[in-house]
Amino acid sequence: MKILSIGEGCDKENIMEWLNCDSEDPGFQILTDQEIIEDLNSNEREDEEETETGDVCQEPSHAEAFEALDVAFKWFERQDELDPIQLLQLKRVRDLAARKRCDSLHQKSITSYFQPKF
Predict the structure, then answer these.
(1) Residue 34 pLDDT > 60, yes or no?
(2) What is the pLDDT of residue 13?
(3) pLDDT at residue 69, rounded to an integer
(4) In the prediction, which pLDDT does 94 show?
(5) Shortest CA distance to 97 belongs to which of 59, 70, 75?
(6) C-alpha angle 55-63-70 in degrees, rounded to nearest 5
(7) What is the Cα–Cα distance from 97 to 117, expressed in whole angstroms?
(8) Which of 1, 43, 77, 82 has its CA 20 to 30 A from that of 12?
């Protein structure tokens, strides 16, 4: 049976050199002001390109969510594996989408944007 010796062929000087090899490296790059500006400008250009190409994922509207949940609710009602508790949960989610859809259709009064301070 052969025993593996990890430190074989290394002396203390080799180990210390290995441990201290990056002691002078701060772990990050120090950028000049010009490099920072160029980086920010290139990121903005990339964001604009994504917006123009439509790669940005838009979330569904409240109306779209309601319609999808309504279809899911009708489908689930007709399944043999119908679980009343799960059906009730799905109905609650659908009702939430319906409330949000209705709220988004109503014009809010100017006073609704102010929170009273007590």
Answers:
(1) yes
(2) 85
(3) 92
(4) 92
(5) 70
(6) 110
(7) 30
(8) 1
Q: Measuring CA to CA, which residue among 83, 87, 60, 62 is closest to residue 72?
A: 87
Mean pLDDT of the chain: 79
The tokens describing 4, both together, are: 């593996």
d(CA 89, CA 110): 35
Residues in Cβ contact with 94 at an 8 Å cutoff, skipping those fewer than 6 apart: 66, 69, 70, 72, 73
Neighbours of 95 (CB within 10 A): 13
User: Which class for 28: exposed (0-12), middle (13-18), buried (19 or more C-beta within 10 A)?
Assistant: exposed
> Residue 31 in contact with residue 39, Cβ under 8 Å?
yes
The pair of three-digit structure tokens given for residue 98, joined into one six-digit string: 């319906």
For residue range 83-106, list pLDDT tens digits in order. 889 989 999 999 999 998 887 776
Helices (H), the chain: 12-19, 33-53, 62-77, 84-105
First to last CA, the chain: 80
Q: List the beta strands (DSSP E) in the chain.
A: none
- Reference 97, options 67, 58, 57; nearest CA is 67
